[in-house]
Amino acid sequence: MSKLANVFIQGIIAFTVTNIDDMIILLLLFSQSDSNFRKRHIFIGQYLGFLSIIILSLPGFLGGLFIQREWLGLLGILPIVIGVKQLINQQTESTEFQTVNPDFPQLLHPNPTWSFFLSILHPNTYKVAAITIANSGDNISIYIPLFAGQDFVSLAIIIAVFLAMVGLGYGIAYLLTSQVTIGYILSRYGRAMIPFILMALGLFILYDRGTFKLLTQIAK
After folding, report:
1. Are 161 and 11 in contact (CB under 8 A)?
2. Nearest to 150 by CA among 92, 72, 219
3. Has this prediction a pTM greater than 0.70?
4. What stretches of 97-190 show up as alpha helix (H) in DSSP?
């Protein structure tokens, strides 16, 4: 498997395992959409929130410019610890969800471009962004070690995959809005798999960065 394909798969796995909860949040947000709280507020808010998470995770990549790649692999311990912690807890955590109440009537304008910019400025958009960030606390702990040790091309591929999957997740949630059973399955069984996938991701980071070899050499 080529390096770029490997990076592509890493991006898909990392995004999927860290955004199961966001899918449930999206389903809940869509259930509240009306003439004031529009779907475009959800779409733009999701992207603003996720871009903030990516920016907060960039120190992992910047550290890779100055620190040996093998040492950065030790950051792979973070997703392993998070996975073990979630596995030990084994209790169903209720998803905290803040109801989005419109603060003022929706402004209407016939120009689609103007309407788009108004949506960016709308308080509901930032409320969705805030919910996205608040619901993604562990994401940064996963993305920092993932970004660490990557070159510019690999980082660009991972971020492109992330942004594409934000849009894909939005589309899937939109289609599943009326499918309550599917939302239940995602919530119940999807979360049960997360600890194991996180631990596997952490082990892969340790292996891919050459950290296991480094530790073996130190042990000798």
Report:
1. yes
2. 72
3. no
4. 112-121, 123-134, 137-147, 152-176, 180-185
